[in-house]
Amino acid sequence: MGRSKLINLISDYLGMALALAVLIIIFSLSTEHFFSIITFRTIANQIPAAIIIATGMTYILVIAGIDLSVGSVLGLCSAVLGVSLAHLQWPLWAGLAGALGVGLACGVFNGLVSVLWGLPSFIVTLGMLEIARGGAHWVTHSQTQYIGSAIEPVAATAVGGLSLPFLVAVVIVVVGQLVLVRTVFGRYLVAIGTNEEAVRLSGIDPRPIKLAAFALSGLLVAIAAIIDTARFQSANPNAGTGFELEAIAAVVIGGTSLMGGRGSVVSSFFGVLIIAVLNTGLASIGVRDETKRIITGLVIVAAVIVDQYRHRWPWKRGK
Amino acid sequence: MDASGQGKLLVVTGLEKSYSAKVLSEVDLSIGAGEVHALVGENGAGKSTLAGIVAGLVKPDGGHMNLNGRPYAPRNRRDAESSGIRLVMQELNLIGNLTLAESLFFDRLPHRLGWINYNRLNEQARPLLDQVGLGELDPTRLVSSLGVGQQQLIEIAVGLSRRCDLLILDEPTAALTDPEIDRLFAQIVRLKANGVGMIYISHRLEEVQRVADRISVLRDGQLVFTRRPSETSLEEIVRWMVGRELGSVVRQRPARSGGAVALRVRGLRAGPAVQDVSFEARYGEILGFAGLMGSGRTETMRALYGADRREAGQIFLRGSDVPAKIRTPSDAVRRGLALLTENRKEQGLLLPMAVRANISLSHLGSISRWGGWVQTAVEQAVALRWIQNLRIRCASAEQPAVELSGGNQQKVVIAKWLCRDCEVMIFDEPTRGIDVGAKFEVYRLLADLADKGKAIIIVSSDLKELMASCDRIAVMSAGRLAAVFDRGEWSQDAIMAAALSGYGVNL
User: Fold this and answer.
1) At a CB cut-off of 8 Å and minimum separation 6, what does A189 contact?
2) Which chain B residue is nearest to residue A311, measuring alpha carbons?
3) Looking at residue B253, what is its pLDDT?
4) Average pLDDT over residues A68-97
5) B347–A183 CB contact, under 8 Å
6) Confidence (pLDDT) at B507
7) Which of A137, B170, B173, B297 is most exposed, with minimal Cβ within 10 Å?
8) What whole-number distance in Å separates Cα of residue A41 and Cα of residue A28?
9) What parts of chain B have a pLDDT lower than 70?
10) CA of A302 to nearest chain B CA: how many angstroms apart?
């Protein structure tokens, strides 16, 4: 049992790890600048926010929902943090609490509205995408807030050469994966994404569970916002623009189904890594930005096609 | 069996098919023009696979087929249909958001430059609906507004509407009531007279004997027996199907009087289908609900379970005088009321998930610790225990539910609810589409539950099954409770009369 479990685990992530390794090898052979500690440290500093957002997004996709508001909510949380530290001179802890509270509130709003009125989360979070971005500009009067050293402890703390944000992201991935596969909450998420009506008729109210998933996504976005704000030591009201699509791309590259019922936080983590390595690698071999975007787009589509072959819908197999 | 394919419509020889295990091996079968060839066998015996191969849905691994003396190897369903072979499936294949008329003529909607001529379409639909006895329905109604039984008749009408030489009916009567079945059989007789050959797959052996010219039994993928109905008996067919003796298909339950009142429903109203229904169920008894399709039985159960909105009515549990507050299924389950729905695939199972996860779904809280950490070892053990207890045939507890046969899927749903240990358990069509052996086991299970003191309610369209297993039978007609019979007081005629009473029919 233990052995076959291990084999399963390896086979689940082998493809992703191989793809990542292939990318690294290709870029290392293409340019001598790529394979270096500096490159990897750069990547490790860039991706924590994306990893944390992708974790929340994985939960949302597992219940067959979508959260388009993550980028804007990141901007709003960052704005709240920036204003409270730079402008209102709040202590660090109060600013962090404010940012977390705003992120949570946005997530709860998304969840409550889509659950209570039975609306598709696509529409509700599309609304939130506008609301939160508007809110970010409103709070900051569209001015970037320079915070300076007040937020330095968040980004500067390092353990064994790895930054605190990166460690936080890794912990969130590990805990997030365990919650998804080993807890009642995680099982309910997968079950809801598989067949919500069957879950409801089994005497389990899906509404609070869906609400919790959206709330969690909001909270994780707030954590990502804090990390990004600390990295730049400033809060830009346009921060996070386009993050929703990057996060969805990473999660989908990881093999999580947009139809719900199947997903893995660890795979999403790999998805973020693949996109990050691709971006950094293409930049280091001197590919222009527009070409980079075309290649990234093609990789996303190709990854999903490959995944289709790995997980054929079981009920579409002839019986 | 015929030595030559002379004059036969379809001749199948040496058909083979394997998935992970062998499903069909060396199957020979022939159907003449105007002949009804019935295929019977337990679930998983290979009937649906055989039908799928003939209808072009499944590719065989070996063997060949001849249609009208010419080699026949359909590449897909369309191919088979253009060769005059049509399949009406066990699983409904309709699009809920289309109207009845649109469904009937979906691939040949009358149109001019792409604009559908709805007047002509609805005009064309009427005689077709009439043919299957649904003439009173408005062709512009949505398919989704019909009950399962009526949808099945629409599906059959779709099959009948096209010119075809060979019609395959896979469990056509699973969701039909007796009058509906009679109408269908009248159609079968008419089609036979027109020279249409038919493969008729069913679990209902009495029907098969009535309608078939020849009966073949499939067992574990092999054709083991073919006879004319006059040359064989029900007992012999069942013996060939299961490969062992069964006393009777459903064993008569000894009479018992129930204990205290477990569930009392008063003045229940929900939509047009449920109008002022009151009844009670007692601990230790099996209460059956008979009635025609659309008489409101399923809707009654869903309303009292909180699955659908109630307009009026009170529900009392455990003899309490205070009405129970049941607004959602989770309220109902918390108060000890369970409902096993009629559509197990759509509403009962998490098809791509493991049998283990399906069984544990209803009681995950009780096998977890630290506020929600699932103890997988316990979960596994519980699943294995139920797989053994209910004799669920599966490769392992990790096998996805979708891969199980209908009877075993039903047992998985039952196992899920047995884990939860509710006092009142409602089973809506628990034996639909499952084979004789599994039916027998399901009814034995329900009897055991009643013996253990639970209140059991069964909604079924199979009157014989209800009469054999229930202590009391409530009959619904046109959304109202028409009569309640005690064991010994009922007869098939009396129940039928009650079932028709609400529609202004007097017998």
Assistant:
1) A59, A62, A63, A180, A209, A213
2) B352
3) 64
4) 94
5) no
6) 46
7) A137
8) 15
9) 1-7, 19-21, 42-44, 90-92, 148, 174-175, 242-258, 503-507
10) 24
Looking only at the bridges linking them, the beta strands covering B197-201 and B36-40 are: parallel
Q: Is residue A1 part of a domain?
A: no
Contacts of A318 in chain B (CB under 8 A): 19, 52, 57-58
CA distance B305 to B301: 6
Which residue type does A110 have? N
**Most A CBs within 10 Å: which of B49, B77, B305, B350, as the mutation test of the A interface?**
B350
Angle in degrees, CA B167, B169, B172, rounded to 5: 145
Strands B222-227 and B286-291: unpaired
Question: Range(s) for CATH 3.40.50.300 in chain B?
Answer: 8-242, 261-501
Number of domains in chain A: 1
Which tens digits make up the pLDDT trace of B284-298? 899 999 887 778 899
Residues forming beta bridges with residue B215, ordered by sequence position: B38, B227
Full domain range(s) for residue A94 = 44-305
Chain B hits for A206, Cβ within 8 Å: none
Tokens of A259: 């139809």
Q: Quickly list DSSP for B297-331.
A: HHHHHHHHHTSS--SEEEEEETT-SSPP---SHHH
Mutation to test the A interface, candidates B330, B384, B405, most A Cβ within 10 Å:
B330
At A172-225, the pLDDT tens digits run 999 999 999 999 999 999 999 999 999 999 999 999 999 999 999 999 999 999
Are B328 and A199 inside 8 Å of each other by CB? no
- Asked if residue A86 belongs to a domain, the reply is yes
Question: What are residue B316's phi and psi, to 5 degrees?
Answer: -115, 135
How high is the mean pLDDT of chain A? 88
**% of chain A residues with pLDDT over 90:** 60
pLDDT band of residue A317 (cuts 50, 70, 90) is very low
Question: Measured between CA atoms, how close is A211 to chain B, in angstroms?
Answer: 17
Token output for B14: 């040496």
Distance from CA of B333 to the nearest CA of A (A): 5
Q: Report how far residue B475's alpha carbon sits from residue B498's, in angstroms, rounded to the nearest whole number.
A: 6
Smallest Cβ distance to B332: which of A198, A203, A315?
A: A203
Q: How far apart are CA B504 and CA B507, in angstroms?
A: 10
A194 CA: distance to closest CA in chain B (Å)? 6
B423/chain A closest Cα distance in angstroms: 14
Written as one string, the DSSP assignment of A160-195 is TTEEHHHHHHHHHHHHHHHHHHHBHHHHHHHHHHHH
Residue A14 domain-assigned (yes or no): no
Strand partners, B261: B282
Pick the CATH number of B261-501 from 3.40.630.30, 3.30.930.10, 3.90.850.10, 3.40.50.300: 3.40.50.300
CB–CB of B346 and A198 under 8 A? yes
User: What confidence tens digit (pLDDT) does each residue in A41-63 have?
Assistant: 888 888 999 999 999 999 999 99
| Phi, then psi, of B268 in degrees rounded to 5 | -75, 130
Tell me the mean pLDDT in the region A112-139: 95
**Which pLDDT score is estimated for B21?**
64
- Domain at B8-242: CATH architecture: 3-Layer(aba) Sandwich (3.40)
pTM, rounded to two decimals: 0.76
CATH of residue A249: 1.10.3470
A241 touches chain B (CB under 8 A): no
What 3-state class would DSSP assign to B170? strand
Neighbours of B505 (CB within 10 A): 12
Please report which confidence band the pLDDT of residue A3 belongs to, taking 50, 70 and 90 as the band edges. low
Tell me the per-residue pLDDT of A224-283, one tens digit each, with 9 for 90 and over. Answer: 999 999 988 899 999 999 899 999 999 998 888 888 888 999 999 999 999 999 988 998
Cβ distance of B368 and A184 shorter than 8 Å: yes
Checking phi first, is residue B271 left (phi over 0); if not, alpha (psi -120 to 50) or beta? left
pLDDT at residue A98 in the model:
95
